[in-house]
């Protein structure tokens, strides 16, 4: 193991969308950043986890940050420059390469990687951003209320980094644990948060399911069947008490009704632009968009309910992280093997052996994503905690919109969307008003020089469900990067900015003026339910109060 030491202005640990946005924002504002990533791809849930963007109805409007708009524009332009699009597809301003139902911009994970590399390239060349790939944080030292160093290890290299400001943009809030930052894990009790859909009793092991995603193409007449995983029989026969069947099935829970329903991979002609089957749900390449002489197949991304792994939590007391990750991988591969060999077909037969993994699109040898899709993390004990009653339609006065935060530093929208949990809790899905990101939710109660920039901000188990998706994570990163830059420029610290109305206003002007980041929604949108938007996201009925599976 080679030991070395580095110093930088801003250390960003974790190269997901929040970490990338934080590093890019601080570099744009003139500061030196060291960005670290545990895989060899930047982009987190968009790339290494292979999850197409989940976005809100106003994502194509002027009411998003210029940085996130630039990311989306560059993805479309990458396809126009490099892929054999049809003339009609190339001319479409709102090009959606996959025509997937889940998003207006469904694309291959590696395209997201290429575009993020483009975004960072000038700042890497200028020496403002340095990236350490394949490095995992293993230790942190503190002095009183400050982080003094972070140690990372990767491939025979151990690096100890010092920086006046440190950002935890890891997927699981790793630095919160390593640096002894006060934090919350799992579900809070209703008595603590006052949320009507919170758990009756706090449970740190009540965490959302993780998913190991993978892309598939379909080549009828060919056989691409994967080896039968060792745990295949378990997934084929075991039925969770809250689920309508074993997971190797087309049956699932409909989050609109909380009733069982069937949803197959192919229900209709796969060439239709849109359909309600699984294939169209997260399709990331629609062959109808491309020259058939070059690209003659679709590619769909499997991030479907029946590959959610809810048997065990990744982190917390008594957990076995490596075992949980292995079981999660085996579930995904078992589901694929089942689809290839035993799944009821739309034409009456069984199995689709022509379903083919595409490891070239994920940068792996087995065709699964580089990392599992993480929906929930450790969360800081923040100066301000965003709760259900601040954003959920069911908790707000009719037409009032979400709570207005005078210290807003970003905006977002997504329903409170909790997947089945490791404590045996079924879906929780609450309609939410367009919301703000308050500065107070980014400030730890005690630590003076550490900031969160992923799913580790001051939310609850419930509200994490609406602050965890792609555009919101990017917005969190931009706000943190701008806050860090302001502190470094002015020789101050995050708590002082949050304590001062003047400095908070300065930060807001930096965001809205210099960076083009909105910090509040226009009144007409702020009071709009998604069901009333011009092109709404799905609206789901409020669930019954949480019931734990017996």
Structural class label: alpha/beta
Overall number of strands: 23
Helix content: 25-40%
Helix tally? 16
Gyration radius, in Å:
22 Å
Q: What is the quaternary state of this protein?
A: single chain
End-to-end distance, in Å?
Answer: 49 Å
Low-confidence stretches: 533-550
Look at the structure and give the mean pLDDT. 94
**Shape, please?**
globular
Q: How is the biggest beta sheet arranged?
A: 5 strands, parallel
Give the strand order, joined by hyphens, for the main sheet. 4-3-2-8-23
Q: Proportion of β residues? A: 15-25%
Brief sketch in words of this structure:
The protein is an alpha/beta fold.
Description:
With 550 residues, this protein is α/β, with parallel strands linked by helices. 27% of the residues lie in helices and 17% in strands. The protein contains 16 helices and 23 strands. The strands form eight sheets. The chain has a five-stranded parallel sheet. A four-stranded mixed sheet has the order 1-7-6-5. α2 crosses α4 (109-125). The longest helix has 21 residues, at 321-341. The radius of gyration is 22 Å and the shape is globular. It starts with a strand and ends in a 24-residue tail after the last helix. Residues 533-550 have low confidence and may be disordered.
